[in-house]
Amino acid sequence: MEKELSAKPVVNGKKAGKKAKSPAPGLTVKRFFTTPGVDPADELAWEYRSASITGEDGRAVFEQKNIEVPKTWSMLATNVVASKYFRGTPGTPERETSVRKLVARVVDTLTRWGVEGGYFATDTDRDTFHAELTHLLLRQKASFNSPVWFNVGVEAHPQCSACFINSVEDSMESILTLAKTEAMLFKYGSGTGSNLSSLRASKELLAGGGTASGPVSFMKGFDAFAGVIKSGGKTRRAAKMVILNAEHPDILDFIRCKVQEEKKAWALIESGYDASFNGEAYSSVFFQNSNNSVRATDDFMKAVVADGTWTTRAVRDGRPMDTIKARELFREIAEAAHLCGDPGMQFDSTVNAWHTCSGTARINASNPCSEYMFLDDSACNLASLNLMHFRTIDGDFDVTAFRHAVDVLLLAMEIIVGFSRYPTEKIAQNSHDYRPLGLGYANLGALLMASGRPYDSAEGRNCAAAITSLMCGQAYSMSARLAERMGPFAGYAKNAEPMLGVIRKHRKAAYNIQAEGVGAELFEAQKAAWDDALAQGAEHGYRNSQVTVLAPTGTIGFMMDCDTTGIEPDIALIKYKKLVGGGMLKIVNQTVPLALEKLGYPQTQAQDIVSHLDKHETIEGAPHLKPEHLPVFDCAFKPARGERSIHWMGHIQMMEACQPFLSGAISKTVNMPANATVEDIEKAYLEAWKRGLKAIAVYRDGCKRTQPLNTSKSTVKDTKAAAVEPEPLIKPEPKAMRRRLPDERRSITHKFSIGGHEGYLTVGMYEDGTPGELFVVMAKEGSVVSGLMDSFATSVSLALQYGVPLQVLADKFCHTRFEPSGFTGNPAIPIAKSITDYIFRWLSLKFLPSEQPAEAEVTAVEVKAAPEPQPAQQTVAIRLPASPKRDTWLNQADAPPCHTCGAIMVRSGACYKCSNCGATSGCS
Description:
The protein is an alpha/beta fold. Among the domains are: 164-353, Anaerobic Ribonucleotide-triphosphate Reductase Large Chain; 747-847, no CATH class. 36% of the residues lie in helices and 16% in strands. It has 26 helices and 30 strands. Strands 5, 6, 7, 8, 9, 12, 15, 16, 19 and 20 form a ten-stranded mixed β-sheet that branches. A hairpin with a 2-residue loop joins strand 29 (906-908) and strand 30 (911-913). The protein is globular and about 110 Å long. It starts with a helix and ends in an 11-residue tail after the last strand. Residues 49-140 form the Ribonucleotide reductase class II vitamin B12-dependent N-terminal domain. Residues 161-699 form the Ribonucleotide reductase large subunit C-terminal domain. Catalyzes the reduction of ribonucleotides to deoxyribonucleotides. May function to provide a pool of deoxyribonucleotide precursors for DNA repair during oxygen limitation and/or for immediate growth after restoration of oxygen. InterPro entries: RdRp_reductase_class-2, RNR_2_N, RNR_lg_C, RNR_NrdJ/NrdZ, TSCPD_dom. Belongs to the ribonucleoside diphosphate reductase class-2 family.
């Protein structure tokens, strides 16, 4: 195995060593985000912090001091990156201590690989790629999957892919080899999936006599290995998917296997055993370490609709085994999912209808979260773009920046393929021959809300579809340009016809997107991307067989400070996190102010609405809020004191909108309320098939018996079991919200002279007479001074509009000294030490009261220490790190506790993530 793991990198179908040269001239890389000669890291403000993660028991799970981090990164992002991605033994000189160096480790390595692989036409293109990728990563605009951060630049030939699909044959040797392969994948921080339908059923005979064990029996062994192997020193739990075809004779045993074990766990809990996910009850039962899915063809689903019969068939010879009503089998699937969340469903005919390489073999399986679906014995490295960083200041979508980011990231992912290590020769060969990639995005829910579009609406779905379409079309276009320079993937020749056919299907779907809710530029750009992808591919082929998926973006979502993960909406506008030692952290959705601004609410009204949300735990009934705007703020779960939430069909419809523009599928959980019925789950699965989804998983709130958490303060118990004091309520510092001036505003213009240099000040004012913008014109100065003063005035204007008090600005800039300075002719300000000194002293005289009260300390949070029954409240101001995103999302009922720190996890796609330390149960 170790020999297989150390396979040499392959470029252009040939093994590449240090002297490898590409026969192609390489690519030209354009600059967009960066400036030649300027290090993108130097454009950021940096600071030193201490990272610390505390477990539920109050003990430190992780701690590292003096970490260099961009000031704009939250403490949660700092904690996650330091604990998960910094390499080296803690406390030793080899331990990484800087995000700057972490990103450099990865980008330097990828750039070196790109040079060795012949990907760059010139040294300038190499330097441009290095700078543009560094910018994307440091600015939290994009991130690679976790194995890249774990391993690249640390090992000579690192395992870089997060997602693997492994085949298994009907022999003991193959079954045990699969167990070994899975163990090695878990060790290096990746996840894997397999379809076990090739294994003989428990009703079939063995050659030597007796009956076979059947796939469900072997699943127990695979599950046990997964349970004891943490992703190896990579601080990730093993992640796996198990699939069985609906025609397999053991399909009923497969459907029921988790249900039976769940009931055993309930019995142990009722007998007094620990009910936590890692406690004695659940650790004593099987099948808790995998996601299970039934693979169903169109024939099976049509039989369900028609109330027909369904016949299972022997694995070895295909002879008929059992015949049952299709609806009865379908009902069993829904009942099991209702009780324990598994199995999900994968729609085999749909998956293979969109298969770009059907000339090679069919698609049988997926990765653990169901977003990567491709050939057996293949791998996919993932990366995601943070959509909120492509939202313009006016709330539109920056198409040009997004397209360029797709190009840079896809090039980086393509470089990774040939220089990665793979666990088996089969996976290595298929990775080199087909080069599948998994580009995706995160923060869709936040983007839609901030843009004033309801998640569950035609305009929201259209916008999401257009963005997904642009991403995939641009990625295939870039892949075709790569093929022009580097050659198409080795398996393209025998798959050219089916692949171009799939590209045409994508393009047709792009032209069917409706314009409602989609900006004009985005609407046209996504169609043009597919036109180019088809034209370029028809001429040059494609470098990559697949290019896009939508992954759950768990840990990397924290790294990018995303408010929502993958394709998901926000869980709730108000979340509570229990704190070690007692108390709760109250998280108020930080996208709400942006949405209110986009919807046109004045700042005073927006503040009233947010205050209502904070006080009542729901935005319903908020003053000033128009009824037609309520859907914008709907989330996955109903608030404790409200009635609105996104219906489960809204989740399916969003997946339906985006699925036609993905090479793979979508990792998403269709959230259902606790009172959802078995019939609801049947309908959800049926609708998913009818609407062209490739896979679906449901989660009914409360379907497991671990410690529940809620979106309501009243239902969250303190972490100190013996606490008798009331729980303090901690609110994070709110984000700044821009208060725009009306289109018609009053203004005042003032002429001044400083040492003979004349100028003009113009101040625009709000309705209440406070200043909101500043213009400075220097009458006798050259372009440099005029340009600098214009830029300075713009900065001051933005500061005023985002709520920086004029007094704070005046204290900072009054009495600054530089030329020109001197006499002014203004008796109120006879001598000015500089232009900025004069400006802010004049603004102080005009707009600030003559006597300022003592400056009040700006506090980050308030702690209300009095319980409701008492007649008075005591308010105490304390300081916390200014990070509104730290420790977010605590609301998923009965999710498992984190295997690293013990905090309750939340759903992330089809997997779970921990909002305390960033750990995930998935593979991305």
